[in-house]
Amino acid sequence: MVERNTKLIMSKTTHLKIGELARQTGLAVGTLRYYSDLGVLQPVQRGDNGYRYYSQNASRQVEFIKKAQAIGFSLEEIKTILDVRDRGEKPCSLVQGLLDNKIEQLEIQIKKMSLFKQELEEYRTSWIDNPNPESDFQEVCPLISSVTLDATAQSSAN
After folding, report:
1. Is 9 helix (H, G, I), strand (E, B) or coil?
2. Domain range annotation of the chain
3. Half-sphere exposure of 133 (CA within 13 A, CB side)
4. Quick one: fold of 1-70?
5. Half-sphere exposure of 1 (CA within 13 A, CB side)
6. Pairwise CA distance, residues 113 & 156, whole Å
7. Are 146 and 133 contacting, i.e. CB atoms less than 8 angstroms apart?
8. I want to staple 15 with a disulfide (CB 3.0 to 4.6 A). Which of 19, 53, 104, 124 is the partner?
9. Could you tell me which of 52, 67, 44 has the C-alpha nearest to residue 22?
10. pLDDT digits over 24-82, tens only?
């Protein structure tokens, strides 16, 4: 019993409870639990009461997670980066590769969005030229009814 109490007292003084970590980082307790469940933030210990205890540098780990998310990394990608680090390797080449991939994906999205914008501008121009087209009584708005459905428009709606 003495050993267990000593262990609990040491945990309280050298480790942070999840609520303390939440106050330090400005994140909700639920978010920190989610991070723990995904494996991107590991408690150093679990108390007999189920409490999660984190190291004193856990706020630095949370800051890393926030920074990685700020530049577009998913929690899954962050977990992969941390796994590489935990194997004793520097994950910088992985990070660079992931970043290159994100940039490529953004370039594709920008092209798609530019084409979509151009299409919308063409509709706007044609609708200015003919703001009240003839329609049958069943149509909600003949302007929208004049839109042509193609693969680009259908994928934009999803």
Report:
1. helix
2. 1-70, 90-158
3. 16
4. Multidrug-efflux Transporter Regulator; Chain: A; Domain 2 (1.10.1660)
5. 0
6. 9
7. yes
8. 53
9. 52
10. 999 999 999 999 999 999 988 888 888 889 999 999 999 999 999 999 999 999 999 99
